[in-house]
User: What shape does this take?
Amino acid sequence: MSKTKYIFVTGGVTSSLGKGIIAASLAKLLQSSGFSVTIQKLDPYINIDPGTLNPYEHGECYVTEDGAETDLDLGHYERFLNIPTSQANNVTTGRIYQTVINKERKGDYLGKTVQIIPHITNEIKRRIQILGETGEFDIVITEIGGTVGDIESLPYVESVRQLQWELGDNNALVIHLTLVPYLAAAKELKTKPTQHSVKELMQSGVSPDILVCRTEHPINDGIREKLALFCNVKKEAIIESIDASTIYDVPNLMRKEGLDKVVLEKLNLQAKEEPKLIAWNNFLKHYKNPESTIEIGLIGKYVELQDAYKSILEAVGHAGAQNKVKVIIHAIHSEGINNTNVAEKLKNLSGIIVAPGFGDRGIEGKIEAVKYARENNIPFLGICLGMQMAVIEYARNVLHLKNANSIEMDSNTPHPVINLMEDQKKVTNKGGTMRLGAWDCKVSENSKTYQAYNTSSISERHRHRYEYNNQYSKQLEDAGLKATGINPKTGLVEIIEIPTHAWFVGVQYHPEYKSTVLNPHPLFVSFIKAAIKQNN
Ligand code: GLN
Assistant: This one.
């Protein structure tokens, strides 16, 4: 294979412009043109990884097959490209510094002063090229987190400058994503913020090859000419990115604007085929033209921030399209649910999801929601903490084990139906020490989960410290809560079900991480199907 080419995506003017979606959409188009592509995210914060961050900070923590706790943009990359990412796809400033400081202690730089340039920038450049050097990819897209001009982003922009120089013309390019705001009073789109942001980038020695302009209104020829002139960018490389009704429209919109064409030209690459996006557009057709609507409740404690449950919301959307329905998700705060208002809050729902989470805030509300779903035969999907809540609810209300709980919430509970894993007992550090990444699971043949997956051997991604306590399995099973999925190596319970219920499944893993546009997750598809049935 020829040498890997590199595309850098920087952001200007404001954060939250959707660099991740632009990077994923471009990657999708290049992938459909016959290239093998991957995307990497560089995050300028000092945490080693986002695993210890509260979801209110940067949204959900996404988990890869190899157990990396990563930025949620990696979820978009996987959902768009349908190929797994790994630890190498997400690097933070913390990890860069950790590597350099460890090397310094080992004596690797003996005698030298360790500095941002060249030591930190060399480490950034090494991390950028790790994926290219595997030989698996024609093109690596690197998204630089943050906004150009931030102090934290400087070493990254400097590394891009150096790499562009070292890799040479036609081997690397820079896409700068900016905002072209509309001033309602003047009825005008404004280019000045973009001009300033490009100037900022140029002060660091980086000239963007392509400008992607986020806008609420179409950008006319005059604006394109002005931006081209002031920013040293060819007119055909000024790409409009207008607000879309769904992120899944963006690849088509970018294709219409010719983003992939400009990129291939600049990289001196010939498309191996026309990007047709047939399966993708087939998904979009169902996604945008549903035959009916159903309402699902998502019971969680970070509901104020949509990004906190990103992968679950997307997985439900994929499953809705597969079932030709529009799913309206009502995010309901678990702290506001109690036994007097639960019926009022949940009565109109065709399905209930109880979300993952950590700590005891809002858990009694989650347990009430599980009870309501169980007693009223409403399709229920409990994910990770949601599954643990289902076990606790059954122990308390069916087995009458008073104060049954998880050790996480009550270390003195008389009935620890959810217990700390044996190998977690010695763990004191919080970062990167949970049970993480893909683990095998054996599914019982006569179960709803088996019907969903259509196989008994599955592998799913985990992120938790606590587990179903097997000491209670006989009592729970005898009372009707079946363990239908077991880890073949450890014997740990991964799935629980109530066979007599319409659809009641709790999973210790996170199925949402593996749902993609082209492969909606079978468990979500099956849950939505059950909810539709409930609705009729
Ligand atoms: N807090 C629970 C545990 O650590 C569940 C984690 C989760 O929902 N991801 O086991």
The pocket of glutamine is lined by residues 356-358, 384-385, 408, 463-466 (CB under 6 Å). DSSP finds 18 helices and 23 strands in the chain. The CA atoms of residues 411 and 425 lie 13 Å apart.
